[in-house]
Design brief:
alpha+beta; nine-stranded antiparallel β-sheet; four-stranded antiparallel β-sheet; 4 helices
């Protein structure tokens, strides 16, 4: 598979994640902002600093202000020959997306230790959130690796406060990087797994023996089981899955069902 095809594939993966978890990628749908808003000189300077840390000598070709429907906010976009950089209205970095990558030598093979050192160093160089921990590091394909940095709340990682990176260790290149800051819940876990399973089974109208898995996670409330529910905030939740792939989110502090999903296979 050619590298430009891989970049398109990675962007597609990020869009799929955004649908379920709020991941934003460069190919997500945006529409021009109707109000008169512009990319400021300060934003341009921030992007040039980012480019320098990416070891890029690119100059700015164009700028845009777009509205991200899924994030429900404006993004300030700087386009160069090789990168697209998104900032928010406070000049904070939101995303870096490569338009192309350099060829990789077939002899340049990175192991996991190498990949970890490279991405942790690049993470620090880009001044990304210092309180996020490296929670996931695996190969995406033969050249590209994925690294996830997430904030840890008493052993529960929060995907809504995270940085997701696709990168090539052999070239020290960022393929795609997205920053999420969409809420958290630092409530203590007071509901046991067994109690959460009982609540989920009751919601589904099944016996608890039909529950196949239960794990703690940060999840956004939704109206999957209650159409009148308008809560979209993040809760520390027990994620309960049944044998028929129904998923129930049970708040880990008060044992209420806050939403759910279903795995389609």
């Amino acid at each position: 598979m050619k590298l430009n095809q891989k970049i398109i594939l990675i962007s597609f993966v990020l869009i799929i994640l955004l649908t379920s978890v709020i991941v934003y990628a460069k190919t997500s749908e945006t529409t021009p902002v109707k109000e008169t808003k512009v990319v400021t000189n300060e934003m341009k300077n921030v992007s040039l600093d980012v480019l320098q840390k990416l070891n890029s000598s690119d100059s700015i070709l164009s700028t845009d202000v777009v509205y991200d429907k899924l994030r429900e906010k404006d993004l300030y976009r700087i386009n160069t020959e090789n990168y697209m950089i998104d900032l928010d209205s406070s000049n904070n970095l939101v995303g870096i997306y490569s338009m192309s990558t350099n060829p990789v030598s077939t002899t340049s093979v990175a192991n996991k230790d190498d990949a970890r050192k490279i991405i942790e160093n690049k993470y620090k160089e880009l001044n990304l959130p210092a309180d996020y921990e490296l929670s996931y590091l695996e190969k995406f394909d033969e050249e590209i690796w994925e690294a996830d940095f997430e904030k840890n709340y008493n052993g529960v990682y929060n995907k809504y406060e995270s940085v997701k990176v696709f990168f090539i260790p052999a070239n020290n290149e960022i393929v795609a990087l997205t920053i999420f800051n969409d809420g958290h819940d630092d409530s203590a876990v007071t509901v046991s797994k067994d109690d959460a399973i009982l609540s989920a089974a009751k919601e589904l109208g099944i016996d608890s023996s039909e529950i196949v898995s239960a794990s703690l996670s940060m999840e956004k409330a939704n109206n999957y089981y209650d159409e009148s529910n308008t809560d979209k905030s993040v809760h520390t939740s027990w994620v309960i899955q049944s044998a028929d792939n129904s998923i129930v989110f049970v708040d880990a502090s008060d044992n209420t069902v806050i939403g759910g999903d279903c795995i389609n296979e």
